Amino acid sequence: MVRLTGLVAFLGFVLPLVVGQALPLHSSSRWILDNNGERVKLRCVNWAAHMETNIPEGLHRQSMEYLVDWIKRQGFNCVRLTYSIDHALNPSIKVSDSFIKAASDANVPLDAMQQLYSMVVQKNPWIANASTRDVFGALIDKLWYVPPPPFPTQQTPN
Predict the structure, then answer these.
(1) For residue 70, which of 42, 46, 81, 112 sits 20 to 30 Å off, Cα-Cα?
(2) Measured at the alpha carbon of residue 80, what is the angle toward residues 99 and 119, in degrees to the nearest 5?
(3) Which of 36, 48, 45 has the alpha carbon at shortest distance from 7?
(4) Is residue 7 part of a domain?
(5) Whether 52 contacts 83, CB under 8 Å
């Protein structure tokens, strides 16, 4: 199946790491503004997830938590997360099955792909029972950060 290498919906799959910005974001003319009307400058990083395995790249080297923390530490406030047509059409495939299919699709020996899968699970044990949709969902949950209000909201008595 044809891979979609550059599909990014600007404010659909641009996942903000919202720090100090009043939500929701909106546009006015050519500007992106926060809820207070202040301009928001997006500092984005691309995270490829459109390759044959249909999960974000790099999970065989580091845990998802480490990678998300690294992105935040570098000062990025959004992530352009790519995905493939295969993932869009079949998001419920187990990650283990996705690696088996990837071996065939990429014309790579199955043993090599299974070794790569083992490295992913070693760094991210929860992926062993996950679907590719579960991996994307977990990543989105970890990337989306809204700080708590600075002080508890107090209601004035009537």
Answers:
(1) 112
(2) 30
(3) 48
(4) no
(5) no
**pLDDT > 50? residue 12:** no
Does 5 reside within a domain? no
* Structural domain count of the chain: 1
The model carries a pTM of 0.76
* Separation of alpha carbons 81 and 86, rounded Å: 15
Dist. CA 129–CA 124, nearest whole Å: 11
pLDDT of residue 89 exceeding 70 = yes
What count of Cα atoms within 13 Å lies in the side-chain half-sphere of residue 135? 31
Q: Is residue 60 part of a domain?
A: yes
More confident residue, 16 or 3: 16
What is the span of the domain harbouring residue 57? Answer: 14-143
Please report whether residue 105 resides in a domain: yes
Q: How far is CA 59 from the centre of its chain?
A: 12
Contacts of 133 (CB under 8 A, 6+ apart): 91, 92
Separation CA 122–CA 22 (nearest Å): 38
Q: How many CA atoms lie within 13 A of 16 on its CB side?
A: 19
